[in-house]
Amino acid sequence: MVAVLERPRIPEAVSAAGARLAVAGVSHAFDIRGAALPVLDHVDLAVAPGEFVALLGPSGCGKSTLLRLVAGLEPPDSGTLSIDGVPIAGPDPSRLLVFQDPTLYPWRTVRGNVALGLEARGLLKVHGSRIDEALRLVGLADFADAYPHQLSGGMAQRTALARALVNAPRLLLLDEPLGKLDALTRLAMQGELVRLWQEKGFSALLVTHDVEEALVLATRVIVLSDRPARIRAEIVNDALYPRHRDDPDLVRRRREVLEILGHAA
Prior knowledge:
Layout: E1 3-4, E2 21-32, E3 35-47, E4 52-56, H1 63-71, E5 78-83, E6 86-87, E7 95-98, H2 110-114, H3 116-120, H4 124-127, H5 129-137, H6 153-165, E8 171-175, H7 183-200, E9 203-207, H8 211-217, E10 220-224, E11 231-236, H9 248-260
Parallel strand pairs: 1-11, 4-9, 4-10, 7-8, 8-9
Antiparallel strand pairs: 2-3, 2-5, 5-6, 10-11
Helix pairs in contact: 5-6, 8-9
C-alpha cells in the first residue's frame, strides 16, 4: 500500500514548456546469466508539466533503471510510458538524461562539448546561438574556450547541464548529478538547478540518495521500496523557494521520509 503523507495535487503553476510524463504499470527485470532479476514492480507515476519530482529509495532498488526507461534507452518488460500521451519508443532530445559523471570529451572545449547535441542533429547552424545562451544560464560564458581539465567538478557538471539545456528539453532526467561534488559545491549547484528549472520551465525527474536534497529541490518526493521497486509513499512539498534546511517543516518532512525508509533513529 502506498502511504500518502499529504494528498498529491498538481501544482497550481505549471509550465507549457514542461512535458507530462505517465508511467503505468511498469515492471522490468535484468537478465542475469539467463535468470530474471526483477527490478521494477508495477510502478505507476505521473509527472505534471513543469513539476519537479524526486525519486528516493535504497541503493540498487531500480531508481536509475526507471530513468533509463523514461529516457527511452530500453523498453520495459511490461506496462507503458508516455510523454504528453505519446508512447515512448526510444531516445529523444526532448527527454535528456544527465548523469553523475559529466562525461565530457577532453579534446573539446566547453563550447564544443555543449554543441554536441546540436551537431549530431544537424542543427548547429540554425540554433548555434543556443550555445551562448546555455553557457550564460549555467554561469560559464567566460569559460567557453576552456578544456575539461581546466574545470572544477562543479564547472564540469555545469557544462553537462548546459549540454542538455541547449537542446531545449521538455523533461530533464537527473541521475544523481551532484553526487560526486564536494559539500559546498553541491549546495551551490542545488540552488542552480532550482533556478534553471524555474527559468526554463521544464519538467524534472531526479534520482538522489540525499533526503534533504530531494526536499530542497522537489515539488513532490516519491519513496521507493527495496528491489523490485514499488512506490511506498508520495510526499507533496509545496514549500516556497528558496528553501532553508533548518526550516521546521523541512526538518519534519525529512524525519517522515527517513521513517519510511527505515532510518528513524
